[in-house]
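Aim 2 progress update. The chain analyzed this quarter is reproduced below.
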Amino acid sequence: MLTFIEPYWAHILFVLSLILGAAAAIHAAMTKEEVRSAIGWVGIIILSPIIGASLYFIAGINRMRRSAISSRRFLLEHVRDHFETYDATDEMVMERFGERFAAMKTLGDRVTEHGITTGNTIAMLTTGDDAYRAMLKAIEGASRSILLETYIFDRDRIGRRFAEALVGAVKRGVTVRVLIDAVGARYSVPSVLGMLRDGGVTVDVFNGNVIMGLRLPYANLRTHRKILIIDGCEAFTGGINIREGFSGEFLGADRAIDTHFRVTGPVVADLFAIAAADWRFTTGEDLQSGSWQVIAPEDEPGSGVAIRVVASGPDRSVETNHKMLMGAFSVARTSIRITSPYFLPDRELITALITAARRGVEVDIVVPEANNLTLVDRAMAAQFDQLLKNYCRIWRAPGAFNHSKLMAIDSRWAFVGSSNLDPRSLRLNFEVDLEVLDVSFAEALERRMDLAISSSTQVTLEGLQDRPFASRLLDRVLWLGSPYL
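Predicted structure tokens:
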């Protein structure tokens, strides 16, 4: 057989390159919504036969086709109507927050899968130790079910503490499911998966296999979500992964800073629907009955905090977070405050921020002085001048690395969760954020950011331009690769 094929190997390779190249180029042209992305990939495919097509099938396909679970479908018939009474009306939002935020509600209703609900509570957990303490207490107090989805779950001192709590819950008869991203599960060796499985915890990895590798053709797609649901009535979400790097108890002043949130109310049902859909996509198991029943809220409809869960990801909810941010920047009148560890917005978001600043809106962006990802930090610096030339202010916060993702608009509207302002979070990752319409909560976020600004160093055009040319050139080169960082 080999003897027969040997004289024709060049012909076979040529035909294979044509087939793979044509398939990849057609797929890129038909599925990419951004012309620059489509042109870039088609160019790579044409200029690098076979290799270009292979790279595209590994890293270029960034849309998953999967079904979703409705936030109402798993509810019992006798509580479904009760849940729907907590949906915020256009009139309520208009009366409390004005016409422009009523327009934001309309935008969210049209681009997200979940509505704004009332009757919620939200508590801000401002350190890793606070978040871990509250989450572990909730796990240890669970009586019925625990659903955990996270990007990173390290097998370090904090990770083992969580693993022991989850194993303890299983031994008490609690139904437990844990979903860890396939990339995030590799952050510690050995993985925590074995420890959880040995303890009887049902655990799986999202979009891959820790031993065999990532799931093709979606190897570049990850779940960056952090969701913990306890007994269908209490939830935690935000930016904190499960690892001791955020714990002052173990690392003292060297720990990273992050912000997490504890919520109750109808918003828990929507967070559960998102995590349950990810679990079903991974394992095929439906979590819609028995132990997984979501508990109906007891507070009066219209009370509490108005919150919407915003799920984004490379499926039918692609760029939902991007659309929400574009809308928020356009309705801002007085202030936009942003805290982000990785600030690499695309041209559309930069234009929206610049336009707001030119309208007289105070735009303040807080980024870490010392970043844990040097390449990302240098790419960030390469585009700071675009904002500084147009009335925006950028601040470098000293001290511990701040991994928080916080945004407040006009002391009325807030956006918090797992999304960074970078290409990966905005287009490639599965993310979950909370849109919060509440004066007290937005003001608390602003105070937190104002405190950071008070001790920060302001970035200036002069300071950027005074840096050596070679350093500035390297920043721009890294910036060119920012869509892939």
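Residues 338 and 365 are 5 Å apart (CA to CA). The two ends are 45 Å apart (CA to CA). These observations will guide the mutagenesis experiments scheduled for the next reporting period.
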